[in-house]
## 1
Amino acid sequence: MTINLLRGKTAATRGLDQDPMLKGLTIGEMDSHIFSCPSCSRPLSEGTSRCPACGVRLVLGVKYRRAAAILGLGFVAGILLGGVLTASVITLSLHDTPAAAAVDVATPPPVPAAIPSAAVVAVVGPPQAAISALSGTAVVNGRISVDAVTLSTALADPKTTTIAIARALRSLSADAALGTDLVGRLATWRDAGTAPGQLGDFYRTMSKTATLALRGSLNDASGYRRSAVEMEAVLIGLRQVDDASRTLAATIDLELPPVVLPGQ
């Protein structure tokens, strides 16, 4: 039996030796370059282009079809990568060109030199509001003149009631308030001189005298008569302030309404 086993082993070894693909291939030899067939797993040496057992074609130890597929995939990937890089370069170039054009457009055109024009001379004069206020003082002075006559008539009659005197004083107080408002509008006229100050002092004195008189009781007849006499003393200055208004109006050729002063 031992002899038969040795014979069988020798026969098997001889069969491997007769395989032309395995000639020169020593099993177990160090540094031998061997790979297995990807189809039938048969040991093959490097450089074999076709398996003798199953007949499959090989390229570097890989099936021909699989190798062709890998090469085709690499070719497609290369084309795609090249297209992406080309598109990126073109896009960057297009972005840079408008930016340069925008810089040129943003540059402002040269401004033509201004043509010298004739100098405009501003006409300086009193404000229109001040002129209207000056005209109004003449109207107020006319009302004061009328109310002054009423007050003098009431004082001249010994039978005049306190109510009549108080009514005349209230009218004069209202005239003074209106005159004070007009003087405030004259303040915008810088070249008005002393006229606005004279008018303001006169109207304020009238208002103060009337206010003190009207605080008294209507039963104090003698007190109201004394206040009325004090008001008459204040109204004597009406002629002076009216003249000041007309003098100021004459400087701008403004004609004021006529005022009939007491005693004319």
Note: Confidence is low (pLDDT under 50) at residues 1-17, 21-31, 97-106, 115-121.
## 2
Amino acid sequence: MKHITIIQLTRLGDIVQTLPLINDIKTVFPEAHLKIIINVVFEDATTFLNEVEVITVSLSLLDSNPKIIHNKQDLLINLNNSTISKNLAHSIEADMKIGFGTEQSSEWTSFITSFLKHRYLNSLNLVDIFRHIFNLKFNNIKVSNDNNKINDCKIDKSQQIAIQCGARNIKRQFTIQQYIDIAEFYLSRNYSVYLLGLQNESNNAELIKKHINHNRLIDTTGKTNLNDLIDIIQNCEQIYTPDTGTMHLAALYKTPITALFSGPAFPYETLAYTSNITVFMPDTDIFKCYPCKEDEKCLNGFECRFLDLKNHFQNEINQNFVKLNVSYDRIGQILTPINDYALIYRIFIKYYFFNDLQDSICNSKVKDKIQRELKIWNRLNINNLDIAEKNLEFLMPLIYYYILNSDNTLIDKAIEFFRSTI
């Protein structure tokens, strides 16, 4: 294949998470001319997208002029499930189109989409979701936690750290007190502390500075472009951040990360693709509403954000929060502890898509629940969504898969697999 185009119109972090896919494509088709279409807002991403042709588009103008590539492509890969991305994919002529909403959309993309309403059942990082759109098509299954080869040179990262002062949703952000605790801890040890963020996050920086007046507390919010941000990240010993593009950039440039996930941010899906990270998330047994929806109003006082970082600095256990371990299996990044039901789906994914069968280890409570739902499944009309939603939980992704893809092959295999393994 000589001409390959990727559509990636979402956020900066998603662009960084596309890099392993780009590496996979270059491995299989080293001579191909590779293009990536991104939102013009992130045009500075050419800093790290230096081995592909970057095409920037204004999303507001795409409706009036969707055709931005005029020559025929050998392969088009759409990584976004939005209407605007699907329309763009439809407007580009290509011999083969794979990914979300394409003529040759696969069982893989339909199955991944079927978890959107039950996210806690999904354990696949976005990096691996992107990669396997391509890898399953071209039998290139190789997993590595090495996102890139950037920053192999030695850089002195001593005596400075950075704090990302915001996120696009307040439910994802650290509390001001957490920012203060981090800054005071490092300033007391003679570190320089950089406050990172966009202009609209400078209010958080001002609140921090009201509590801390120190010449080594350096406010860069609203004052940096992407290259400036990368320079700061590369020279820091540690980055403290919610689920943001800054987190993914830190992974890209091999800077250690401490990340707190809260609100709609779910680390099993969007954690930075690196092992060099300490990550905390709310305990789902305690915070029943986590993870929530992005646009859903919080009725619980944002309590899932209140991780005590003083305990973290003193190596004490943080009650109500889980510290996750990062490792990699055959299909990508896996975090532990993992929800038992999500683990069963992951084992099924390995079995169905990758011909890799492992024994499922389920406790009796898990087995009882799945057996109950399997009995209901036998009596259920799969087309009656209302009844299904009232009676099923673990098996609901199969219902949504049926809505997206009326081929029953995967569904039948899944039911057979669950019956045989529990």
Note: The chain has three domains: 3-105, 160-329, 357-421.
## 3
Amino acid sequence: MRAETLKRLMPAWEWRWTDTDAPMLASHRLWQSAAYRLNSGPAVDAINRLVAESISGGNIDLAWVDKAVFLYPETVQRIRDSARRTVHFTPDTAFHANRSRHFEKTIGMFDMLVTTKSFEVEEYRRRVPADRLHLTTQGFDPALHFPRRTPRQRSRSVTFVGLAEPDRERCIVSLLEHDIRVRLGGRGWKGFLTRWGRHPKLDFIGANVVGSQYAEALSSSWVGLGFLSKRFPELHTTRTFEIPACGAVLATEATPETRSYFTESEAVFFDDCADLAGTIDRLFAEASDDGLIAIASGGTRRVKSDGRDYPSILRNILGRLHIERFQLAL
């Protein structure tokens, strides 16, 4: 999404893409495991060779690197030597999950480091000057995340797509026990489905619900669950903006960040599973959809007016880099 957005923002520029997933997926599972666990091995070697080949010739105005967890210091140095400006962007944590000794060694080589994790700002500041750090929010892609159903076509159900985690399982169970229909997708749910898969109110929509399928899933239910990970102190996530962008009611855990992005009339906040189930139960018990429509519409207007879309977010980053020759294509 970010790559396509950059291309639309800067239509006069020539772009070269390097898909580092390709050598990873072509590697044996053993080497994939070594890459993710140790940041080393043949798969990581192949990624670095591919990146080095892609920048041969130099003369690059802007090098944009998404998640440099597998890039060796010598590879990042070659990128820096070949480019006038270098940006590192990650939508994920860099010092909790996804931690990489390679990134730790190369963090100072980038002209700008963009993070969406406010709780990691101090970690960055211990390593780079504050003026090279840019904190932004997660975002949504307006070309993908938009309402695909009318209000009348939405079901009184809740949708969650994401990884299974114990607290998420507990909340799904609480919803089912309140006789609330749940549409569930994502990875890691095998054990949960063994126990709850036959529940009449549970629909498992698949392990790989991505792209337009993901947007369609959010557009089919009245409520989208904005669960936050408990593996690290996450305060908002991509779902925080993708759900209202798709016209659904965002049900999100109450944090200082989610509270700053929405009011009570623009999202449903909860502190625990029982609170979540009770609130949704009351909303679905109403005879009319008017209350759901009001919250969903308010959330959609808010993410648009506040510029939570990737074009607005990336335009701001480019502006900080003092790149003047860009415009959003009509």
Note: The CA atoms of residues 190 and 197 lie 9 Å apart.
## 4
Amino acid sequence: MTDLSLDHWLKLLTIFNKRKQRLDFFQPNPAQEHLWQLMQQHNRILVVKARQMGISTVCRAYHYLQAQMAQEPLTYAIISHTRDSAQHLSSIDKNFHRNLPKGLKPSLSQNTPRATKFANSGAAIRTYSAGGKGGTRSFTASAAHLSEFAFVDDPAELLAQVIASVGDGQIIIESTPNTPADLFATMVKQAQSGESEWKLAFYPWSWDPSYQAKMLRGDLLAHERKYAEIHDLTREQMYWRRKQINIMGSTKFRREYPQTIAEAFMGGAELFFQPEALDAIEVLRVPADRAHRPISDPDPNDGYVMGIDVGSGSGGDYSAITVLSMRTRQPVYHHLSNDIPPGRYAELALQVAAKYFQPKIILEAQNAGLVVQDRLELAGYPNIYRERASGYKTTGATRPLLFGGLQMAVDEGTLISADPILMEQLKQCVVINGRPDHPRGCHDDLMISTAMAYYLLDRTPISHVERNWTRSVIDEHKAKARARRARRSLPWDLRGKTRKRA
């Protein structure tokens, strides 16, 4: 075999050029060039892609050349979600081989729809369908390319089989997104935060130079100009985007042609918040593993409201606290935990309330929330919001009303910056059965506590804020003294056991 670098060999391969409708030499686009370099540096690669970017093709080119250059009988596996898809990927390899110049084409000892084997080394490329029963259970490979992984019926089982087979060899997983909480989405999130060994690569539609169009009349709309500014897009790219959205709708476009990873995993449901409005919000830098999530210090010249969404505290759903400034209408503090029982969460709520000068609190007086409300009442907390004798309750009919204040804060640009977890939940919020909700497998606890705080803020007279603007230094010292007393004189102990009323 002629001694050429991988980069030189790549340009000797031929592909079917869809735009020219004929075979052409491989001229990598920017996304393909970037992934080509990553494949030479990493053995665990996770690719999120827009459609028609040629990602599968460059993956096939890399593994085909690796198999062709091998000196040992190594096996390179192609695995896709359906048999037709797997065979299509295999046909790309066969096309590479068939159209090589005669002097550079190695002989094959096997050439079937499911296998290509090189005579000199015994190295082989084998094709598997993840949809077939047991199709990948007994295979062994030195490297594997998994295409459209998000659409496999049992991705966890497939991934376990591939890792067991390949070991330390190279595994490339590439897929367009499917649902916001599937295994692929979870792996991407872990790779983003550095919690796994996978190297994440994301290729938005704007990386493809062909995705441009000319508009004969009209101009960009205000929200389009803002979107173009945020993502550094040209007018021609925005015109192409508008044209595609007019054809397939904005929700489907963002899923098929995402510009950000967040867009990629929004799913196919109708989004409750406008993505363009969310893009304008600054994402704050807060440690992802921190339960206490302060944003700004308490201001004695401000007033506050506090929303609490109470979970079971048993490792499932989360309990969340949001403190909102009445003067700026911005969140100033969050707390998020799923391992504190409701009784103890009331203690924490009292401590947070004391720090922020005893704000009015809103929480649901039902299920675990009723436990917290009872503990607050036992402690003599004076500022609990009520809409009926038993307290505040959310129903299916009033849920959109609860979210109205938060939606207005997002859409009108009032919410300037947000905690990263809150931003993630805002972007995942969809309309299900006519009301805002979260997709299966996702959380919305911090979003709900924030929505409750905005709901309460809209029902709090502005005079409460004006009064706090003139709070004196003496008042501040009094507030701190009350905070110390609140921590000392709770009517239950740290184990959650209720003390007798005085």
Note: Residues 209-268 form one domain.
